[in-house]
């Protein structure tokens, strides 16, 4: 069940709980707060609709029949999913909560919990998602910039990064069997393509 109310068109609160009453209550409360909500009665139902890249967070019941919350968390981690999880449970203990947190959960709330506490955890999870997306976007931009380099230019960058102290045009030219003037030409093209103005900027960019 998906509610069209949303604070961010790309962010969804996924609720997975086998208790129909709790699911309905959470959907109602979160929708009134302006969140886009998708609710599922089991981990299997959720996985049937979930796709990598979906943003937001997962409000996940720990003690469901079949695949339980920790098993779903493990499955998502193995998939490489970057979906922050807020666990909710009526009978979880300290070992379970520690295990969930160690595996990357935002928090582990015991029922009954205050709505304000859940909202706070969801906002934390959303912020984590935003930061992950920003990091991914920067990484993709960097890959695109380096993808514009020729194989020779990439080789020169690799030598500069691996040993900055021996990165003069003369030293690189000697190692590659080309002239220093040719290296100078390649270095100028590298700087232009990567949008950097100094060797220090180049090394910092390549080391990210």
Strand content: 5-15%
Distance between the ends: 41 Å
Helix-strand category: alpha/beta
CATH class of the largest domain reads Alpha Beta
> Spans of 5+ residues with little confidence (pLDDT < 50)?
1-6
Order of helices and strands: EEHEHEHEHEHHHHH
Named at the architecture level, the CATH assignment of the largest domain is 3-Layer(aba) Sandwich
Number of domains: 2
Widest beta sheet: strand line-up: 1-3-2-4-5-6
**What is the name of the CATH superfamily of the largest domain?**
Response regulator
- Largest sheet properties: 6 strands, mixed
Radius of gyration: 24 Å
GO molecular function: DNA binding
GO biological process, one term: regulation of DNA-templated transcription
Modified residues (4-aspartylphosphate): 61
Domain Response regulatory: 12-126
């Amino acid at each position: 069940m998906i509610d069209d109310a949303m604070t961010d068109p790309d962010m969804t609160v996924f609720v997975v709980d086998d208790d129909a009453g709790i699911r309905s209550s959470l959907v109602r409360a979160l929708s009134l707060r302006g969140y886009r909500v998708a609710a599922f009665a089991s981990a299997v139902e959720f996985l049937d609709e979930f796709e990598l890249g979906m943003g937001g967070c997962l409000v996940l019941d720990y003690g469901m029949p079949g695949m339980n919350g920790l098993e779903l968390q493990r499955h998502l981690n193995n998939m490489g999913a970057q979906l922050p999880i807020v666990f909710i449970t009526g009978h979880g203990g300290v070992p379970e909560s520690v295990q969930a947190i160690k595996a990357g959960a935002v928090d582990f709330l015991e029922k009954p919990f205050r709505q304000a506490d859940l909202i706070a955890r969801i906002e934390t999870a959303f912020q984590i998602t935003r930061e992950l997306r920003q990091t991914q976007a920067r990484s993709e931009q960097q890959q695109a910039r380096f993808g514009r380099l020729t194989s020779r230019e990439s080789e020169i960058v690799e030598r500069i990064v691996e040993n900055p102290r021996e990165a003069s045009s003369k030293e690189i030219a000697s190692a590659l069997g080309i002239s220093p003037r040719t290296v100078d030409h390649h270095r100028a093209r590298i700087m232009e393509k990567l949008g950097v103005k100094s060797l220090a900027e180049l090394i910092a960019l390549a080391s990210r």
